[in-house]
Amino acid sequence: MHPGRTVDAVLTTLLSPWRDRRTWFALVQLATTLPMATASFTAMIALLATSAALLIVLPLALPVAWILFFVAHLLADIERSRLAALAGLDLADPVPTSTASGRFLWLRRLAERAQSGARWKEIGYLILIFPVGMFLGTATVVAWSGSVALIFLPAYMGALPGDTARFGLFDVGMGPAVVIASLLGMLGLVLLAPCVTWTAAGLHRRMAAAFLGPDRGAELGAQVERLESSRVAAVDSARPNDAASSATCTTGPSSGSSPSPCSSAPPRSASNTIQRVAAPWWPTPTTRRRRRWSSCATWCAASTP
Question: Is 286:275 a contact under the CB 8 Å cutoff?
Fold first, then answer.
């Protein structure tokens, strides 16, 4: 391969995040996570603390608990909508429709919400997203702003105290060190910052899918139940037709009437049966095993409906 083409391929791969619009959507996603997380964390902690404090006066705690579940579900819906717009993550609402009825309907619905695991997962997400979002947002901001600061370090080095940039473990002064720091900043801006952005956005999506999305096991179980119900319905609908066909074949055609379709059907030969049920793993008939193969054909012909 030509060396120039190899260099172009490597540069194309390294710079691909800059040409991918998902990088900038992920950056906006992480930038808007911290304000959303701050509002959600404040609301959840305030409502949870108030509900717990009013438990000694239960009638006063019930309205606060109802507001807690209502606000949590509203904020979770906003978060699902935000992730669908910025991260392309479509999460279905895992909270089932209320089936409460009868007297004291709002109280029954409150008890139903308190027993729903999906609602408590929403509350847990709205609390945990604050520290997690702060960590992911800080890492992203440091990666981008730190790289830009290192790139322009030679421009403002003279304005720093003692013409030295102190980084804690080491200091950078005028000379070759500042040029090396600027080159490292360029490398970090081109490679490190997009990588950190994609990683942080991916972790956020995984967390949202685990807390705000439907339970995978419950979803598979519901799908199995739907398939089982459809299979049972298909079998039940086919039974009357089978019974009518059996009755027609048993009774036979009356005198002077047209022949029965059961009697006019051509006889099924063993060779046709063998071709129908033969599979790649089926043993190949040979002259040495003719008796065994004949018994297999007879069994297949008898068991085929």
Answer: no
- The backbone torsions φ and ψ at residue 268, rounded to the nearest 5 degrees and listed phi first, read -90, 125
Environment class of 242 (CB within 10 Å of its CB; exposed 0-12, middle 13-18, buried 19+)? exposed
Q: Is the pTM of this model over 0.70?
A: no
What pLDDT, on the 0 to 100 scale, is given for residue 5?
A: 63
Domain boundaries of the chain, sorted by first residue: 3-217
Number of neighbouring beta carbons within 10 Å of residue 254: 8
Asked if 110 and 201 touch (Cβ cutoff 8 Å), the reply is no
Q: Which amino acid is at 47?
A: L
As beta bridge partners, residue 165 has 172
How far CA 138 is from CA of 169, 186, 202, 253, 300, in Å, comes to: 21, 20, 15, 86, 70
pLDDT (tens digit per residue) in 122-174? 999 999 999 999 999 999 999 999 899 888 888 877 777 877 777 767 777 77
Q: Is 114 helix (H, G, I), strand (E, B) or coil?
A: helix
